[in-house]
């Protein structure tokens, strides 16, 4: 093990935080869930900073980091939906976008070969909106249970960002496929 492995170890630790976050939510201990979620968020920034600043990027890290992020968000959305704090249809919309992106990536890979999947800005905004919604629901449930308007706005911002990001991925991948097909 070397210093270059630190970002990957941080990503693995973030994956291990997913179950405690879920457990805290299921226990309605949203104070603890917020702390664990915040630790996961800080670790995400830290592993990215270390990887870029010290040129410790790796293929494994490029896989682990988004898996850790996605796993935390999917489990958080599923748990909050299970608890009735977010609507199930929103969970389905969020998961549907991810499934479409994965199917598109696989189709592109098998039709045209390897493609470096770099997140689009709309995807980063979508992830931010999802994180903010999870945080809003936890804060609201813990301290302001009567304030549902902010959560409702957050839900619709997530829906808009899911539609925007999903559409952009379809357009970008479609245009890349069109160019590849023309060059064959």
From TrEMBL:
Gene Ontology BP annotations: glycerophospholipid biosynthetic process
Protein EC: 2.7.8.5
Reaction(s) the record says it catalyses: a CDP-1,2-diacyl-sn-glycerol + sn-glycerol 3-phosphate = a 1,2-diacyl-sn-glycero-3-phospho-(1'-sn-glycero-3'-phosphate) + CMP + H(+)
Gene3D superfamilies (alphabetical): 1.20.120.1760
GO cellular component: membrane
GO molecular function list: CDP-diacylglycerol-glycerol-3-phosphate 3-phosphatidyltransferase activity
Broad EC category: transferase
Subcellular location: Membrane
Annotated pathway: Phospholipid metabolism; phosphatidylglycerol biosynthesis; phosphatidylglycerol from CDP-diacylglycerol: step 1/2
Similarity remark: Belongs to the CDP-alcohol phosphatidyltransferase class-I family.
Full protein name: CDP-diacylglycerol--glycerol-3-phosphate 3-phosphatidyltransferase
Species the sequence originates in: Methylophaga frappieri (strain ATCC BAA-2434 / DSM 25690 / JAM7)
Native organism taxonomy: Bacteria, Pseudomonadati, Pseudomonadota, Gammaproteobacteria, Thiotrichales
């Amino acid at each position: 093990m070397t210093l270059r492995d630190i970002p990957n170890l941080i990503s693995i630790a973030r994956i291990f935080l997913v179950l405690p976050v879920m457990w805290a939510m299921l226990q309605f201990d949203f104070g603890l869930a917020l702390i664990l979620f915040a630790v996961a968020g800080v670790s995400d920034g830290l592993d990215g900073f270390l990887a870029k600043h010290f040129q410790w990027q790796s293929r494994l890290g490029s896989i682990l980091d988004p898996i850790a992020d996605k796993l935390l968000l999917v489990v958080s959305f599923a748990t909050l939906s299970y608890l009735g704090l977010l609507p199930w249809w929103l969970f389905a919309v969020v998961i549907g976008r991810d499934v479409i992106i994965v199917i598109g990536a696989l189709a592109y890979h098998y039709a045209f070969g390897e493609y470096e999947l770099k997140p689009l800005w709309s995807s980063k905004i979508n992830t931010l909106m999802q994180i903010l919604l999870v945080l809003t629901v936890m804060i609201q449930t813990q301290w302001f249970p009567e304030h549902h308007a902010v959560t409702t706005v957050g839900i619709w911002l997530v829906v808009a960002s899911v539609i925007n990001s999903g559409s952009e991925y379809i357009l970008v991948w479609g245009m890349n496929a069109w160019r590849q097909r023309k060059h064959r």
